[in-house]
Every structure is written in structure tokens, then in C-alpha cells.
Amino acid sequence: MRRVSIVAVVMALGCAPVKTVTRSMSDSVVVRETVRDTVIELSPDSSLVRALIECDSLGRARLSELLDYRAGDRISPPAITMVDNILTAKTQVDSFKIYARLKDRYEEHRTSDTVVETVEVNKLTAWQKVRLRLGEAMMVAVALWIVRSVKKVRNTLFS
Questions:
Q1: Kind plus residue range of the DSSP H or E element containing 1
Q2: DSSP assignment of 91-105, as one string?
């Protein structure tokens, strides 16, 4: 009887379950910003004033004739004054360089898909399946034999 129960337990524990499929998916976005300084240079510009200057009898210089008076793209023509034999030409000029801060933004999309396949461990062969069914039938037979024996002992004790 003891051998039969040990054989039944060993046969019941001999099978392992099948592992299931696991599927996971992850999606991520990586954003990188790069800040950099840059200098934008503009083309040179100029304005022009050409004039004839002559001296009078007292030795003072005077502007006799304006030959050419031209403005540039970003520069106005100079304002000309002559005081006490000193010629002064003034003009207002903006900066010729522009300092800019640029931001480069890069977006990178990453998608990863992980699939774990089903792995069947300890797959039973046809002969093992037959033995398993025979073991189940034997367990049922042993259970019936135990019930019958208990009834027989009970009937002999109580009769």
C-alpha cells in the first residue's frame, strides 16, 4: 500500500506547467536642447561726402561746393559743419554685428517592443502520457480498494 501511494505522488509531481507569453512595450521621447551663441556679421557699409574747400583772403577755410553727398544702406550721410577752420562730419551708426542666441531642439522617439515567447518545459512524450493515465486509473482503483476494505472491516466489527 505504501508503494502505491509513493508511486502516485511521484507521478502527480512529475509534470511542470507551460510558461506563458509575456509582451511588454515601452515608448519614450528624449528631448535635447542645445543653446549656442553666434555672431552674425553684416556686409560693410559707407556713406560719402565730397566737397571743395577753399581759403579766403583772411586765411579762413570755407566750403565752396558740395560735389557728392550719398547715404549708405545703414548709414545716413554725415552732417558737415565748419567752424574756425575745423571741418566736422558727424553720422550715427548702429552696431555692425548682431549677437544671437540660438536654441537647437532635437526630439528622439524610442520604441522598444519586448516579446517573451512560450517555452514548454518538460513536454510529455506519448509513452509518458499513457503512463500518466494508467497512474490516474491506478489511483482510482486504490481509492476504491481502500473504501471497500474499510467497509469490509466495518461490517466485521459491527456484525
A1: none
A2: -----SEEEEEEEEE
